[in-house]
């Protein structure tokens, strides 16, 4: 191959090493099939995990929306009840004040001239406004 022996490195190489370096060990058909089966199994496991995570996310979102709707309904009914109770409280306060006024003044007050107003509707008719 080389004309000059000084550049011929094949002399220094081991012939067994040369043979083994030229031979490529290809994986057998069975090992390739096993590798493909493992890859398919890993793909199946990854897909299943992604499906579970997606389902949990969607389920959590739906559950949160249901709870939010329930809480909104509770707030609505509670605020409606609060308004009714405020109105009832106002009514009771007015009743209490009127009872206190009548209990303090056990005698019905005499009409004062300022509270009586005389209106003329027809000639000679008189009306009192209390």
Overview of the structural elements:
With 130 residues, the protein is mainly alpha-helical. The protein contains 2 helices and 2 strands. Strands 1-2 form a two-stranded antiparallel sheet. A hairpin with a 5-residue loop joins strand 1 (118-120) and strand 2. It is rod-shaped and about 155 Å long. The mean pLDDT is 80.
List the helices and strands and how they pair.
Blueprint: H1 15-22, H2 29-104, E1 118-120, E2 126-128
Antiparallel strand pairs: 1-2
- Percentage of residues assigned to helices: 55-70%
Strand coverage percent = under 5%
Q: What is the end-to-end distance?
A: 139 Å
**Main sheet characteristics:** 2 strands, antiparallel
Strand segment tally: 2
Stretches where pLDDT is under 50 for at least 5 consecutive residues are: none
Overall spatial form: rod-shaped
Overall residue-averaged pLDDT value: 80
Summary keywords:
2 strands, rod-shaped, 65% helix, single chain, two-stranded antiparallel sheet, 130 residues, mainly alpha
Structure summary:
The protein is mainly alpha-helical and 130 residues long. 65% of the residues lie in helices and 5% in strands.
């Amino acid at each position: 191959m080389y004309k000059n022996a000084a550049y011929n490195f094949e002399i220094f190489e081991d012939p067994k090493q040369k043979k083994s370096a030229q031979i490529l060990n290809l994986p057998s058909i069975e090992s390739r099939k096993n590798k493909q089966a493992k890859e398919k199994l890993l793909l199946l496991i990854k897909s299943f995990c992604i499906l579970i995570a997606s389902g949990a996310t969607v389920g959590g979102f739906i559950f949160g929306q249901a709870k939010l709707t329930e809480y909104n309904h509770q707030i609505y009914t509670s605020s409606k009840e609060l308004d009714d109770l405020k109105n009832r409280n106002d009514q009771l306060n007015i009743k209490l004040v009127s009872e206190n006024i009548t209990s303090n003044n056990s005698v019905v007050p005499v009409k004062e001239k300022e509270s009586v107003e005389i209106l003329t509707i027809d000639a000679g008719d008189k009306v009192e406004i209390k």
